[in-house]
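seq/struct pair 1
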Amino acid sequence: MTRICLIGAGPSGMSMLYHLAKMEEQGKCIPDVVCYEKQSNCGGLWNFDWRTGVDEHGEPIHGSMYRHLWTNLAKECFELPDYTFDHHFGKSIPSFTTREVTLDYLSGRWKTVNATKFVRLNTIVKNVVYNPDEDNFTVWARDQVEDKDLPSEQFSHIVVATGHFSVPNMPYFKGVETFPGRVLHSHDFRDAREFKGKELLVIGSSFSAEDISLQCVKFGAKSIVCSSRSGPMGFKWPEEIKEKPLLERIEGQTVFFKDGTFTEVDAIIYCTGYKHTFSFLPDNLRLQTENTLYPPNLYKGIVWIKTGNNKLMYIGMQNQYYTMTMFDVQSFWACRVILGEKTLPERDIMETDMSRWIQKLERVTSIPDGIDFQTEYVMDLCGDSGYQHNLDVKDIFQDLNRKRKESIITYKDNVFKSKFTGTVSCKHHKPFMSVFDDSYDAIVN
């Protein structure tokens, strides 16, 4: 009997539940589905939690969201084709939105088919084992509210949709233990106002480094030094932000860089990425990878081929340019496979397909290359699954990337046209660097 265990009710997991509920609504017979979600709400990373460290149940805080966060992508890059922003809000809104507005949009789609009916909130999966003799999985979970272990359950399929932005990667730098100020990872960053008047060191060169640096300047930080091993980010920064090569060592409040320069700072913020960590899975089922556009041992970036008889799947484990739409087509593809509407090829064909993508990935050397690569991947899934919409928005991505390079300060003031409605977003009433209210009303109304 087909029975699905879905782990995680964030954007990836809820896309899976949306498609299953939609299929049920269309009269299809869907299998029994149980979605385990350790938080008290659906939405995953898009839920704001003021806490850091552990929650009331002693579990690590999942979320990395902070106050005043705006999306790094224009909404036209992640708009869902069958549930547009215009449809949800009943009008045009700015291209760049905030956390609260984005979550409101995503949850609106789930509500159209009551996708949350499959979710068991406050329930954490502790262990998963594959049983080769029975060709199924045993899952052990814990009810965190009742503080008790639940009876084990059997499933034919496991779908892991926990995301990979909740376990910080914190490299060691010599002397960090001598630093007298605040040291934190971006995972624990909650409010830029904490650093008003401070001199900061930000380590890293990806989206979180650029966004947190700008947020801190916006809310009054005195100065910021950005340090990374990959070289300058190449933006025209405001005068408060300077770039340095990789941090070499720390002596008290003084930080030394590889070029021999040094400065004093009040706080250090690590924007050094996250680890793929699936503590509930044994080694033979666990994806072990760096953050990459095509993780190893996943056919179509989804099916785990090492063990589990192709019945263990991962959704949303790639490094991402495409986000919600990629999760959506991955989920649709997975649903069709599990329901028997699509048959997987022989193992040698799957391995050849994976090798082909890995070879393509080796030729990716820039952000534009990465956008092209992921566009091709998403469109391949669309064709292979019979997904009814064209998700190719690489022109918007490339235009957005150019605008970021032209002005990191003003690129969020730009507007873009929806691929699915043809609507050009309205402009926000103030420039991004002058907006200090990130509430729903401030953005939508």
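seq/struct pair 2
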Amino acid sequence: MPSHVITDWDPEDTVAWAAGNDKIARRNLIWSTIAEHVGFSIWSIWSVMVLFMPESVYGFTSGDKFLLAATATLAGGGLRIPYSMATATFGGRNWTIFSALVLLIPTVSMMVLLAHPGLPLWPYLVCAVLTGLGGGNFAASMTNVNAFYPNRLKGWALAVNAGGGNLGVPLIQLVGLAVLATAGNRQPHWVCAIYLVFLAVTGIGAALFMDNLANHKVDLTAMRSILPAADTWIIALLYIGTFGSFIGYSFAFGQVLQISFVGSGQSPAQASLHAAQIAFLGPLLGSVARIIGGRVADRIGGGRVTLAAFGGMFAAAGLLAGVSFLNDHRSGPTSSATMVGFVIGFVALFIVSGIGNGSVYKMIPSVFEARSHALGLSESERQHWSRAMSGALIGFAGAIGAFGGVGINLALRQSYLSSGSATAAFWIFLAGYVVAAGLTWLRYVRSPILTVQPARAALAPA
């Protein structure tokens, strides 16, 4: 049997890279991305399942469903820090196999729960916690890819990995749409059954085609070392604004549309189908935009791209707040113009938050690569320090950013409970984007801490 352990890996060795290491890295990138992709699907599966759970059958209100989404998001965010260290502890290949197959548990559990309407909310909340295991896959995959790629290609590789993983959200929503269109809103087990197959294929593929890096070690000192740094907390806050928005809206968009369609006079079954026909577009475009954001950030700097992204998010949130406010002050069912405004505003938010996701993650290796040159270390020590710090912040920022999705769903839940609309939540989101844009401008645009070094693309200004 071929060995899946690589004992000497130096991605900065350009000769070895051209001689075949690039193909090894690409193979591991592909399967790591697939595992992350399926993990995102299971993590966000509640965005689909709520469309199969009419209140008249299951007894759960829209507030209960937002709580399920918030619970899954919270669990996924909390698991990202330990998951970011797991690939170095157990090996990227080994952990990818485990992290794919363990998701069989919540998927089967969900099939059982949804087959028995009338159960209380708490077993659904437990299942939501278990689906959060899929959210942890992101940090493990990003840390693994970070170890395989040289600094000059990290922006592209991390953006492809993250963007490909994010595509798991619209894919499961498309699967849900197909089931809703062909079998109706009472056959959710078909969605779960399809993903049982995907999870098995992913685990087998990881076992056959991925590798463990022997020199990729856990560095708990790195995690402790990044905490006092101001950039750690600023980047984490920016990622709350970008990724927190992406994942939060991914969970909430379908339900917001469903509530609005019911408000326009449609039956729950019609509203679910029409919501599913639209909801996947936002996460799909946002996932593709993440790859573009990483590529553009490699060229012109993550700070400038991130600032532009927050400007776009401010405008989109303003549109949603305005449309929702006007709808609150008119009588009768929700109008077609209001629905069009909601769709345009949300899709725009997905696109610009996706761009921001890619640009913020580009800033992580750039910050530590630049700092490493001032440490007086040998070249190998400097590269090790840069990779260790970057990996630690990737896990930390990923976890903190996911918590932004919790806030999105809790804010929407409270807004609907308090006033019957999402207007108050949209105003809160708008204010948050103003703060994030200000931080970006002050720290990374007005007085950039990184300078361009043409010979090293990874050192573009952040």
